[in-house]
Amino acid sequence: MLKKLSRWLRMLGQNTIHAGDYTEDDDEIIKLSIKNNAVLLTRDEKLYQKAVQYAKAILIKSDYLEEQLKQLNIKPKESRCTQCNGKLMKTEKQKIKNKIPKKVFQKINRFWKCEECGKIYWRGGHWKKIKSIKKILKIKS
Ligand SMILES: [Zn+2]
User: Which residues surround ligand 1, an ion (CB under 5 A)?
Assistant: First the structure.
């Protein structure tokens, strides 16, 4: 339900588990957040009411990403992998030559690699999006 928000939270460096990747069951979602000592974010009032008895939980009020991020008052850190939540490490261009498009290799010099799944990141489209969202949230960087 909050898949888009979870990806954005990772881009902003938040350690984020997207419960929907693992389970659809409310009790399991609550267990997952207790086990990981994570704050449970949900749009579902019923789930929230249940979760808040056992775990830290926040009821997300808006359907809109910008409003959701504003509500959470996020302070950005180093981005995490949007796919798997892994940490990103700087990597040498030559090492990943065959993993990125030729055009990107020619134009871009700085790359990051996910420690977990190996996904390669560079300051392309998603970087511009991060900048724009920071602007919306009035975060200086
Ligand atoms: Zn990853």
Answer: 81, 83-84, 86, 114, 116-117, 119
